[in-house]
Amino acid sequence: MKRVLAIILGGGAGTRLYPLTKFRAKPAVSLAGKYRLIDIPVSNCINSDIHKQYVLTQFNSASLNRHISRAYTFSQFSEGFVEVLAAQQTPDSPSWFQGTADAVRKYLWIFESWDVDEFLILSGDHLYRMDYSLFIERHRSTNADITLSVVPIEEKLASSFGLMKIDGGGRIVDFSEKPKGDALQQMQVDTTTLGLTAEQAQIKPYIASMGIYVFKKQVLIDLLRQNPEQTDFGKEIIPAASKDYNVQAYLFDGYWEDIGTMESFYEANLALTQQPQPAFSFYHEDAPIYTRSRYLPPSKLQDCQVTQSMIGEGCILRNCRVHHSVIGLRQRIHADCVIEDALLMGADFYEPLSESSLHLTRGKIPMGIGEGSTIRRAIIDKNARIGRNVQIVNKEGVEEAEREDLGFYIRSGIVVVLKNAVIPDGMVI
Q: Is 315 exposed, middle or buried (0-12, 13-18, 19+ CB in 10 A)?
């Protein structure tokens, strides 16, 4: 795998995850109360023995830069690195990234200088665990020019994805973007060709792209140079290349979730609390998910009832009830609080207890969740100050709302409290 260079696409403005992306790039959004989304593809690469990695970003990349520089430091005696390449304007290229392929094209002068055989193109906002070495070995064994990692899907989900058809050898021969009706039926394939059993193939007769690609080095360079008007891999570059190049499909039959929307992000986080074994697990000694080491103290729970939840490091919880929730780093939850079906991202720093007490005496809101507050089906971003006896429950059942002036949004019925927001005592959302 030393002959492979990984390129991780940091995504666009992350509008579907706004306001979580108001102050940060999408790959820097918190995951499981401890990690960042970018930790997933970076860790998968490290566990697959791929140590040369670039991350392409365009929006709000400061916190992502900081996280990567603090989390991923390789020995000076190795070639390993994880480096951020932010969008920039130059005399030759005055525009920002126009799409996934355009982002790679603008930094092609760096990528082609590496003495490697393949480029591995990854997305920065997916949740999955994958051994890329098996993916690349399949690419090499079929002498493919391009290999796409695909997932088998059932009919009710198929029309939401870009689908493809394959021949008996696994070569991709046709593409269709989110087909419906008769067009959808025509995209059915025999997925036993890729390794599914006959029973599994009957349930999942469609294959969809995961947005993960491996290219022969020179093939990628030629495609990007010869087609400057094509800006997207999945919609333009790869469908056009399938006519003249050997484009293969590689079946990935594990857990994979595109967490680009607020609802999928929320559901994926809470799914991590499932017992005995969640669909995605961080508990793999042979393939850990890495992140920044923070050296925080253990969490302290005083007379609390906690069920089906994850509690991050350095938290202090007092006389509260927490159910089916994820509690992030340094979170403080005071007495008589009820937290249900919620994602609390925690805090970036500790507010001294003496300062918190001073805030209370002066009528200000201290860091954390104030006494007697209830939070249900909500995401509380970092450093939020929730007052006493606050009700964040979406009482009216609103699906969509934008109340940035009051410190919150509602997305798909989920209340999202902004980073650094202050919610006053007694407020009902």
A: buried
